[in-house]
Design goal:
The chain has 419 residues and is α/β, with parallel strands linked by helices. Helices cover 33% and strands 25% of the residues.
């Protein structure tokens, strides 16, 4: 491209802001258009973990037989809005088809290609923004109720090991030596020493957004009505439309409706997660702890202890299922004696989840100037910076350093690709 470069990023969560910053680093004049202030929604409420050891996709072999118990047991993390089931059937059909051994291995390789580049892409942005202190290199521990449950989870950990992720298994004594706040329910564990976490996800995005503005970036808070393609694609707002050489759609779960105009019907579900934020007085954790038998994560934050969990498939605007969320998240008190959630504040946000656990990264089919960067599911925080770097490479016509074929938007236009 010759002359002045300009771009519009739709969305200002962690993914959108990282895309905007990497476009700036390539010399683009960038406008970010967002409905909410930067750093809200899932970018504010996530567990704070950069889960570089989470190589395996969610749809593990044999998952179909486990879905009923995950759904029907109120102690388990899965909830589905019954009236939404007919619309979710294509998503779940694709989810189950991804769990075949060959597709499971392929999705794991694709996720690993992003995981191994998480911090090399993130660190320049943290340094630019002066936000290094918000990310702590203290690892993460996965704890289990029994040796049997650890044995059942070992194949997932072995996938990470096969892709070069260091993991160490711990007995009960070693678990409590590492995190004395844990009680007797944690019988064994696995440590991922290369995992990092942020102590304030919202403030992290806000600092990246402030750096984006300092470098000439513009943030427009407005509802996006449509995205249109062409030689100079444009974003349509309520009272105006703005155009640029490149448009990046990074609007999380709301991205699906914006790309239907191009005939692209992505399988994107609103997988709502919840957290409880407690003061954590008298409880000291050094790093995030995943209660693997409950699918709950406990993370030490700047302002207390955050307990996150649930995979609730529902409409974005459906009322929160606060009672079920509280019952499930309160299980953290069984693992951390002294943790008091009675005065905790709760939060809910919709993760943009694809059935194959792979984000959508690449040009919109038929519209090469419209780039897509959404569908990161549980990995938005981890994959945001590398997604931004890949999008910027595409924007300038440079071959990306990751094979983007597994993440291509076109995988949702041709049925299921052969393994």
């Amino acid at each position: 491209m010759n002359g002045r470069r300009d771009a519009i990023v739709v969305g200002a969560g962690i993914v959108g802001i990282c895309c905007a910053r990497y476009l700036q680093r390539e010399g683009f004049s960038v406008t970010a258009v967002t409905r909410d202030p930067p750093g809200e929604a899932c970018s504010a409420g996530n567990s704070g973990g950069f889960g570089v050891s989470l190589i395996a996709p969610v749809a593990t072999p044999g998952i179909l037989s486990r879905i009923p118990s995950l759904w029907l047991d109120p102690r388990k993390p899965l909830a589905i809005e019954v009236s939404l089931l007919p619309r979710l059937l294509p998503w779940f059909a694709r989810f189950v088809s991804t769990s075949t051994p060959a597709r499971y291995r392929a999705a794991s390789r694709a996720r690993a290609s992003l995981c191994e580049r998480v911090f090399e892409a993130l660190e320049p942005l943290l340094q630019d923004a002066g936000a290094e202190s918000l990310v702590r290199p203290r690892g993460m521990m996965f704890v289990y109720d029994s040796e049997e449950s650890l044995a059942a989870a070992r194949p997932v950990h072995d996938v990470a090991r096969a892709h070069g992720v260091p993991l160490e298994e711990l007995d009960a004594e070693s678990v409590r030596n590492r995190e004395p706040a844990l009680g007797a329910r944690a019988r064994c564990g696995v440590v991922s020493p290369t995992t990092r976490h942020t102590t304030n996800p919202r403030r992290l995005v806000q600092m990246l957004a402030a750096d984006f503005r300092r470098r000439g970036g513009r943030v427009v808070e407005a509802e996006v009505r449509a995205v249109e393609g062409g030689e100079r694609p444009r974003v349509v707002l309520a009272e105006e439309s703005i155009a640029a050489q490149r448009i990046v759609v990074a609007a999380g779960v709301w991205s699906g409706s914006l790309v239907r105009h191009f005939g692209l019907r992505v399988l994107l579900a609103a997988e709502r997660g919840y957290h409880l934020m407690a003061p954590g007085d008298g409880v000291r954790l050094t790093a995030p702890v995943t209660l693997s038998d409950r699918n709950v994560v406990i993370t030490p934050m700047e302002n207390g202890i955050r307990v996150t969990g649930m995979a609730e498939f529902a409409r974005v605007d459906s009322p929160p299922n606060v009672g079920r969320a509280r019952r499930m998240l309160a299980q953290a008190e069984d693992y951390v004696p002294g943790l008091d959630l009675s005065g905790a504040k709760w939060w809910m946000g919709p993760r943009p989840s694809t059935p194959d656990s792979l984000p959508i990264i690449g040009p919109c089919p038929g519209e090469p100037r419209v780039l897509l960067a959404f569908g990161h599911g549980h990995m938005g925080l981890a994959f945001a910076a590398i997604t931004g770097r890949l999008v910027a490479s595409l924007a300038v016509g440079r071959p990306p350093d990751v094979d983007l074929a597994p993440f291509a938007p076109a995988r949702f236009t041709r049925g299921i690709a052969p393994a």
